Each structure stands twice: as structure tokens, then as C-alpha cells.
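can u pls check wat happens w/ glutamic acid
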Amino acid sequence: MSLLSNRVLNMSTSATLAMAAKARELRAEGKDIIGLSLGEPDFNTPDFIKEAAKQAIDDNYNSYTPVDGYVELKEAIITKFKRDNNLDYGLQQIVVSTGAKQSLANVAAVMLDKGDEVILPCPYWVSYSDIVKVYEGIPVEVKTSIENDFKLTPEQLEAAITPKTKMIWYSSPCNPSGSVYSKEELRALADVLQNYPNIVVVSDEIYEHINFVGEHASMAQFEDMYDRTVTVNGVSKAFAMTGWRIGYIGAPTDIARACNKMQGQMTSGANCIAQRAVITALNEPPSRVQYMIDEFKVRRELILDLLNTIPGFVTNEPEGAFYVFPNISEYFGKSIKGVKIENASDFSMFLLEHANVATVTGEAFGNPDCIRISYAASQEQIIEAVKRIKEVLA
Ligand code: PMP
Ligand code: GLU
């Protein structure tokens, strides 16, 4: 009998982190692995942010911070929400956490009772489903199609709603599909929700700046949705700060205060030095990090052009984030180099073992026909990786 709880025994390991660990292991064994599995910018944190962190250490920021974050940081977040998203939040509506991942976990913890349903348009970000399950919620996966750029339609939303629906969680720009919901598309989903006033929307906007098509749209911008939308964001992606572990929410006051209460018993709040650095990051206009977005855009064109030369890779055009999510189901049932490919996990593992390229199976994102390829890697790495993939499949 295991000593461990059913809670953890029933939980999946994060596939993105597991693949990154596997790639690291193989590299340590001397294999030349190109890692396109982890969603992590390959840039360094900008110097102006690093300087702020150094200053914070010298200024003796070493004590516990307020559980929901330094007031100056919450003010910077309020400024950011107004400046970038035209959203008005007050101090009581902001909670800073140890990454957007913890922000999401807090929301699940304070919102879900056993059996509550959470609608997850597929493909969804890898951790949504397990976070919901840990808090005894039921993920309701709604399959979207590549033809519709993997976006949820109002009809699909309507059909997925039941009396048990508590929330809908989505990301835009989307990890893993790169899809970006326009204001009109969000409005159409909000129109459906007008008939269901108790459903809360969790709008994960962590990739908002990595958008190649134009305006970012927030669900909370609609007056009739503001009081029941939790806007999740963080600095991991746009500021290349994954390891600093700072995320945040803007939310209705009762939800934010509940997250504060939960966090007060679980972590006491996020790291003090990282919080000080993020004050500096968020007080600067997003144009300070535009060079990274410009580079991601170049890489997107590059990887799409290259992938489209491989037979059996069906891609749509991702409009944001730094992922492509090709459908590779044409390979299912085939044997390549003596390896039978039955599903996306086999395919991804085959690429790792035979092409030395790490990707992530779409199964982890709720779509078993695709794999996720992160192009947060140098152009040379992208060119070499796709060359290897093409050769091994030829
Ligand atoms: N949401 C999405 C859509 C993500 O891709 C990630 C991955 N970093 C997160 C949330 C969590 O980000 P973090 O915890 O690093 O702030
Ligand atoms: N969010 C990133 C990804 O999807 C980082 C890994 C993780 O947090 O799971 O790869």
C-alpha cells in the first residue's frame, strides 16, 4: 500500500516539465538534444530588471512581504492593467503569487467544491486539468478544431454548460496553440454567458505581449463580465523571468481576498527580491521588451515555413505565444525505423530518441492528434531541429 494520498497518486506529472527533465538527463549523458519542449524564453532577464533586484538585496528587502504582495507592486500591477488592458482594479483586487501557476491554483482552491465543473477548451495549458482535479473539480474538455484555429465557438460553449458549471478557463494567446481571441470572439462567448450569471471566467493572459496580430483583448474589458472574470498574468514570458516566479491576478474583491487568505496559509506570499524587481519591470512600457517579441515573430515564420515542408505535418498559423501545435496524426499506425507510432506520445518520444529533438505530446494538452513545439529557441536550433525531424521521418 502506498503511503501517498490518492490526490497525488491520481495526479499526472507536468508533461512540459517532465520532458524538459528528460532532455536535461539525456544531455548529461552526452546526447546533443535540442530542447523545443519547454515554454521558456531563451533570452536573459533584461538588465534594468536585474539591477532592480540587486538594489533590493542591498536595500535589505529580506522580510516577509504582505501576503498578497508589496503595495508598490500591486500599484504597478494596477498601472499595468490600466495602461495595457484598460482595466480598472483596486488594491483589494490584486494578489501576487509565486508564478501564474500558483495564481491559478489559488483560484481553483477558493472556487471549487467537489464535483464542480470547469470548462476547458482543448487544447488547454497542460496544468489546468490537474489543478482543477486536485481541488476535486471536474475538467470538462471541449474539443476545438484546427480549422477554427483551435478556438472555442459560442455554440460549443453553450453545449458544454450544465447546472454544475462553475468556471471556464482559457488562455489567449493560447498555450499550446498560439491562438489569439479577438475582442469580437470574446464578446460572442460573453454573450452566451449572459444566460449563466454564476459562471466565472478565468482569463489567462500571460502571453498578452507575445501577439503578432494586433490588439490583445481581455474578457474583463466587458462591463457585464468584469465582476466575474479573474484576469491572470505574470512576468515569466514577456520579461523572460520564468525562474523568478511571480504571477498575479486582478479579480473581483471576494475572490482576490479568498486567494489572499489561502496563500496566507500556504506560502505567506511570493519572494521579496523578485517582487521588488517586478515593480521595475511593470512600471516600464512593454516597448522595453519588444525586441524579444520581434525575434519570436521572425522565428514563427521560420519554423512554419520549415515545418510545412515535412509531409504529414498540418499546421495552422499561431497568432501569439511561442508554440506551434501541428497535427501529426497521419503518422499514426505507421512504423518508422522499426518503431510503431500509435499516438502523439509515441511520436514525440520517437523524435526525442531518434532525432534528438524534445517536443511535448498533445495528449498533455487535451489533444492527442498533435505535438507542441516551442520556438523559444535560437534560429540555428530551430533550423537544425526541423532538419533532424525531416530526415528521420523521410
Ligand atoms: N499559464 C500559461 C498559459 C502558461 O503557459 C504558463 C507557463 N509558464 C503559466 C500559466 C504559468 O506561468 P508561471 O507560473 O511561470 O508564471
Ligand atoms: N508554461 C511553460 C510550458 O508550458 C513552462 C512549463 C510549465 O510551467 O509547465 O512549457
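The pocket of glutamic acid (ligand 2) is lined by residues 14, 16-17, 38-40, 101, 126-127, 175 (CB under 6 Å).
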